Amino acid sequence: ALRSVGTAARNRSKNSSMRKDRSSRDVERDVGIFDYATPDVAGFGGALKVTPADFQVNELRASGEEVSLDSSPLPEDAGSEGSNVRFVLQKERLDTLGALAELGSLLGVPTRSFSVAGLKDYRAVTTQEVVARDVTPEAVAACAPPPCLRLGRAWPTATKLRLGGCGGNRFRIVVRGVAGGGRRIDKALRALKRRGFINYFGLQRFGSGASVNHEVGLACLLRRYDDAVCKALSPPAGGRTSSAELEAHEAWAVGR
Description:
With 256 residues, the chain is an alpha+beta fold.
């Protein structure tokens, strides 16, 4: 059994090395990200998200209005005496669920008391609306969050938010270390403005490691359920995995 576990670990290490040797472009092609809206225009290089402030995300209300720390209450909330409170949350170096857990601890309510319209990036400065159940505007105003969180205006509301219920997001992105020359950059940006871009699902939607979500999903669609289970439970080829999870993966591989 120990030899089998060792073999599984070596195979996992080998797969991880093979995956690291492949470029991100190769991995993108695996999941169908292989075309451009401007294939005839030369691109230019640069670095994204050097700092969180380089990637700013502001949620849009269903009306199209951009959410900011000084956003005004919604017209439908005027005069509301509901038991919920709506407020604006700005966060940095935290994902949305982590931010809500922090707020829940400060306000004395469980994380399930919060509702949001979307989950925002970790390495970014993001601004969105949050609704909390059984919390007052006064409690939000008196809250003293850590520096990675900022709270805007708060007001009573009778409603709660649902995922996908916003009008989208507005992104402000800084590209650093740009390479390619002014003429090439100008041409690429004009083409982007004129033609837009193909809004692919990013690689984070497909998972990582030996088993990735799109392969599991394809196996399910083809009704190859044994194959789907094998892909889902195979030891991961890379990424952050707890020792307990890795041990469980390898125990499953040995017992197949």
